[in-house]
Design goal:
The structure holds two protein chains of two kinds.
Chain A (H helix, E strand, L loop, with lengths): L3 E14 L2 E14 L3 E5 L6 H8 L7 E6 L9 E4 L11 H5 L1 H5 L4 H14 L15 H14 L4 E5 L7 H18 L2 E6 L2 H7 L2 E5 L6 E6 L8 H5 L2 H25 L1
Parallel strand pairs in A: 3-7, 3-8, 5-6, 6-7
Antiparallel strand pairs in A: 1-2, 1-4, 8-9
Chain B lengths: L3 H11 L6 H39 L11 H13 L2 H33 L1 H14 L8 H8 L3 H25 L3 H9 L4 H39 L4 H10 L3 H29 L5
Classes of the chains: A alpha/beta, B mainly alpha.
Chain lengths: 261, 283
């Protein structure tokens, strides 16, 4: 039985502005095991980004707590893969990938080794001296992925990294991400709007309600790894899961609308 | 009369042969290039044309040649002044003052601008001071500056520094605050410490707007030095312009004006080149 890696206990976040407050998430409790690939799936505004940002220490919870169980000492707890604009425009591809290592002041040897390795892994070695303005959207996301993996964190957080890509690039990058992930099998929390993406990538899908976000349902995806788009698409069980998830999401959005109106 | 393009089209429509699409597109392309070149020659010709018209009008006394000497006379005077060494004396001293004043203004502006941009307490404390001092034209403060620092090059440099300081400061602060918040998040997420944040995020992120501020500063520096030299100097391009105006040797005055225009152009070219070097990531 795998160890727990991320424990979240009744996490709640309220955003307060002037005289009104918005409850982004309410009483989120989760237990994510080591090596699990978990997807948070939900309608817009359901607070999934808020959960991720709290885990990334970019926001603080209002009430509740969370902990990321460290393994070996000295590794950063988490690294985030941001959306496409997250690639720093004034740094070359290489400097972007080595960013985490440089900020941590890692040893020169470790820095060079890991940067080289991941640059090659995402196929950007020949482009390492180019600037982000000179590469395509798909390539920029590869930089983002390489950067997070090169930093060697305990867990990985991914904020809809492929949302801005066209569908074909999306499929390609999803499979690339999986192949890179298979190597180290780190714990991942992944946010997406796309049901297909969640079915392809995750071990577990957590369906969220509309605001205030809570976890409505959990779905285990038991497909064998390594997975491919063809595997998921041609699997009739996955087809049923898709419909089921979609219906749940529609219900959640409808309920929210009924509450509001 | 048919152009080449029309001939090809005619052939297309009226024969059994179909002209190959590449040659049609090539013809269209050449036509476009010719048109662009024609427009470009307009840009070059128009100032020359203007000078020729000026020359003619002045020589024929249709415009008063005492106020508007013909360009050829101005050019000759330019070489005359260069030969006597007067030109280099005035230009040299003006450049010396501009450079000194420019650096004295730009460097504190950048440092303070970055600090104000990064740290809210500093920004909130200093902003009212900046807002109050900025509208005062430094030239108007020149008498006070002269009283404090004396009638010398230093007081001119300080005047220039004062007028360069504010646009560079304001643009630098804006440059830092306008850095997309996602980069701040990324820096935080990947554990950037203060010193790294300053050199790797704040400084390069603010650089584009900072450089625009510096361009503005450079133009203002030139303006200021000319005015400062007109008011209280006995050397320099501004002095040259002013005294020649007063003694009504207008052709010398025009030489001075041309020099200013030239240096303004030169400085902006140099700064653009510097910008391309410092900001290689902009398309």
């Amino acid at each position: 039985m795998a160890e727990s890696k991320i424990k979240i206990d009744r996490l709640t976040k309220v955003f307060f502005k002037k005289n009104s407050s918005v409850t982004a998430i309410r009483n989120i409790s989760l237990d994510i095991k080591e090596g699990e690939f978990v997807c948070l799936l939900g309608p817009s505004g359901c607070g999934k980004t808020t959960i991720l940002r709290i885990l990334a220490e970019l926001e603080t919870p209002s009430t509740g707590s969370y902990s990321i169980i460290p393994g070996k000492a000295g590794k950063p707890l988490q690294s985030m893969i941001f959306q496409e604009q997250g690639v720093i425009p004034w740094m070359t591809v290489q400097n972007n990938v080595s960013f985490g290592l440089r900020m941590r002041h890692a040893s020169k040897q470790e820095l060079n080794e890991r940067t080289e390795y991941y640059l090659a892994k995402v196929g950007l070695w020949e482009f390492r001296h180019l600037y982000p303005s000179e590469i395509s959207g798909g390539m920029k996301q590869r930089v983002s992925i390489a950067r997070a993996f090169a930093n060697d964190p305990e867990i990985l957080l991914m904020d809809e990294p492929f949302a801005a890509l066209d569908e074909q690039n999306k499929f390609i990058l999803q499979e690339e991400l999986l192949s890179i992930w298979e190597e180290t099998h780190k714990t991942v929390v992944f946010i997406t709007h796309s049901i297909d993406e969640a079915l392809l990538l995750s071990d577990r899908i957590l369906l969220m309600s509309a605001q205030p976000g809570t976890i409505l349902r959990e779905k285990k995806i038991d497909l064998p790894r390594p997975r491919s788009i063809e595997l998921v698409r041609s699997n009739p069980q996955m087809g049923k899961e898709f419909v089921d998830i979609w219906q749940h999401l529609q219900e959640a959005v409808q309920q929210h609308r009924d509450q509001v109106l | 009369m048919m152009g080449l393009l029309e001939v090809v089209k005619y052939m297309n429509e009226n024969s059994n042969h179909i002209a190959c699409p590449e040659s049609i597109e090539r013809l269209l392309w050449r036509k476009k290039v010719r048109k662009t070149r024609a427009f470009q020659t307009l840009t070059v010709i128009s100032p020359i044309l203007l000078l020729i018209i000026w020359e003619i009008l002045s020589r024929t006394a249709m415009i008063d040649p005492r106020f508007f000497p013909p360009p050829t006379i101005i050019i000759m005077e330019f070489f005359h002044l260069a030969a006597t060494g007067q030109l280099f004396h005035h230009v040299g001293i003006s450049l010396y003052r501009i450079l000194g004043g420019f650096l004295m203004g730009v460097m504190p502006a950048i440092i303070l601008g970055l600090l104000m941009g990064m740290y809210l307490p500093i920004r909130y404390t200093l902003t009212p001071l900046v807002m109050v001092l900025m509208p005062i034209p430094t030239l108007a403060l020149m008498p006070i500056i002269i009283i404090v620092f004396g009638i010398n090059d230093l007081s001119k440099m300080i005047t220039i520094a004062g007028s360069v300081f504010f646009p560079v400061l304001i643009n630098t602060v804006a440059g830092v605050t306008n850095i997309d918040h996602i980069y701040v998040d990324i820096a935080k997420n990947y554990g950037a410490r203060s010193k790294d944040y300053f050199f790797k995020i704040a400084l390069p992120g603010a650089l584009p707007m900072m450089m625009e501020g510096i361009q503005m500063g450079q133009a203002i520096a030139l303006l200021t030095i000319v005015a400062a030299e007109m008011i209280g100097a006995n050397s320099g391009i501004g002095y040259l312009i002013w005294t020649k105006y007063k003694t009504f040797v207008l052709k010398d005055m025009y030489v001075g004006l041309v020099l200013i225009s030239f240096f303004g152009y030169l400085f902006s070219l140099l700064l653009r080149a510097l910008q391309r070097k410092l900001i290689p990531w902009q398309r």
